[in-house]
Amino acid sequence: MLMPRSASPAPGPSSSADHPKVTLTLAGCLEGARSIMPMMPGLAVFAMAFGAVAEQKGLSLAEASLSSALVFAGLAQMVALEGWSQHWSASALLALAFLTFTVNMRHVLMAAALRPWFAPLPAWQTYPSLLLLADNNWAAAMRYYTLGGRDAGFFVGSGFVTWSVWVAATALGHLAGGGVPDAKAVGIDLVVPAFFIAMLLPNWRGRREAVAWGVAAAVSVTVSFVLAGWWFIVVGALAGALAGGFVDDER
Question: Is residue 5 part of a domain?
Fold first, then answer.
């Protein structure tokens, strides 16, 4: 029996049924906010440690808070404080800016990984959302996406909570001054690596993933012994991305 021309064929492999529509909803924001809450106590202590160090370096409460609000990158902010001085030259400022840029280069790769998810959204939703990009909410959002979630609100909600806690805890740490313990002394610096391990394990799909992960880890450790500073972050990430690309091409 012939099918009438007005009838639609059954969904095939490339139909929208196999590709859920990308949305950005309040419900997704709330889900993301709830999912990221277990990470906030550790993040708050780390932010308070930054605020305390900033106070000891001579930054005002407004300067420390603005740093967390605008830079919104804990590792880069800590690195910048190590080289902070009350007497700046043009070359020293350029070196500090380059160092911060280098440490944050991983965000380029992180943002690129979000493109398949965020591409269908209009620009006025996509680009403001990327201002909330941070390590922990990116990892949580990518796990959510891998498991089939498509509501970009998840990324926005988890990112907004992360940003709010980071800024507020920075201010508290600055007000507390020297009463906040050093992050490394109490092991707070291990929170982010532990979180990423927890996020990576559910994404394990077989031995192919081990190639990119192993290359990134091996290159990062090697470069950390060869080059001074934070180049191991950028070089390791690029090496892992290239290795993962070659593995994908073989599939």
Answer: no
pLDDT on residue 220: 85
CB 155 within 8 A of CB 132: yes
Q: Do 97 and 159 fall within a single domain?
A: yes
- The range of the structural domain enclosing residue 220 comes to 204-251
Q: Residue 61 class from Cβ within 10 Å (0-12 exposed, 13-18 middle, 19+ buried)? A: middle
Please check whether residue 118 is in contact with residue 142, taking contact to mean a CB–CB distance below 8 angstroms: no
Reduced to 3 states (helix: H, G, I; strand: E, B; else coil), residue 45 is helix
Instruction: For the chain, give the number of residues.
Output: 251
**Residues 244, 176: one domain?**
no
Give a yes or no: residue 16 inside a domain: no
Give mean pLDDT, residues 151-171.
96
pLDDT digits (tens, 9 = 90+) for 90-114: 777 777 777 778 778 888 888 999 9
Handedness of CA 163, 166, 170, 171 (dihedral sign): positive
Q: What is the pLDDT of residue 239?
A: 85
Answer yes or no: do 209 and 184 share one domain: no
Q: Are residues 153 and 31 in the same domain?
A: yes
Q: Which amino acid is at 95?
A: A
- Geometric angle at alpha carbon 169, from 164 and 175, rounded to 5°: 135
pTM here is 0.72
For residue 177, give the amino acid letter: G
